[in-house]
Amino acid sequence: MNILENAEKYAEGKANQAITKAIADAYVEGYKAGYKDREEEIPMNLCDNKTEYVDLGLPSGTLWASDYEKSNGEYIYLPYEKAKRMSLPTKDQWQELIASCKMVCDSVIYRREKYYRVIFIATNGNSITFLNTGYVQVYKENIADILFWLHNEGNDSEKEAVSTNIREQKKQPKLIKCFAGYKLPIRLVR
Predict the structure, then answer these.
(1) pLDDT per position as a tens digit, 127-164
(2) How many Å apart are CA 161 and CA 135, to the nearest integer?
(3) How far is it, in rounded angstroms, from Cα 11 to Cα 5?
């Protein structure tokens, strides 16, 4: 081997090292840039217009609204036909919430009325609360129930909703079929 061949092998090795380093650096920079872009995509306050969402650390990544939808500080009650255009939770999302969070039932006084509530506490420490809001048929009824619509497929006149009668012994939320014309409060997910 002469000096020229040694120099050529040395230069080739250095070139390969430089190319490998450049590719690795580009990969790292691309990863950092992608991570930074994703970090900027995630809203820090988890708000979407007027709705605030809570990260409960659910396996699916679903975020639940911190409260029912409101207008001028009052809960909005909608029949299913109007509510279905909104981002309602699915049956699977509801079951995931029950399976992943601890459920606590108690009562509070709000505006001189006693409200029962169910609090779902996540392993990350965040929580959401469901108050007994009842439903509206002609006027507000059955105030003991915690109710809200779930996303439903099909055209039948009864739709799935979540119901919890806090005064019952079990106090376990259950899925019920509810007349689609009743007006229930709206809880959103994203």
Answers:
(1) 999 988 877 876 656 666 788 899 998 777 889 888 87
(2) 11
(3) 10
Spacing of C-alpha 47 from chain mean position: 12
Is the overall model pTM greater than 0.85, yes or no? Answer: no
103, two tokens: 């459920």
Q: Which tokens is 145 given?
A: 């129930």
Closest to 129 (Cα-Cα) out of 114, 119, 121: 119
Beta-carbon contacts of 101 under 8 Å, excluding residues fewer than 6 positions away, are 56, 120, 121, 122, 123, 127
H/E segment holding residue 120: strand 113-121
Q: What's the pLDDT tens digit per position in 82-117?
A: 999 899 999 999 999 999 999 998 888 877 877 788
Residue type, 170: K
d(CA 100, CA 37): 29
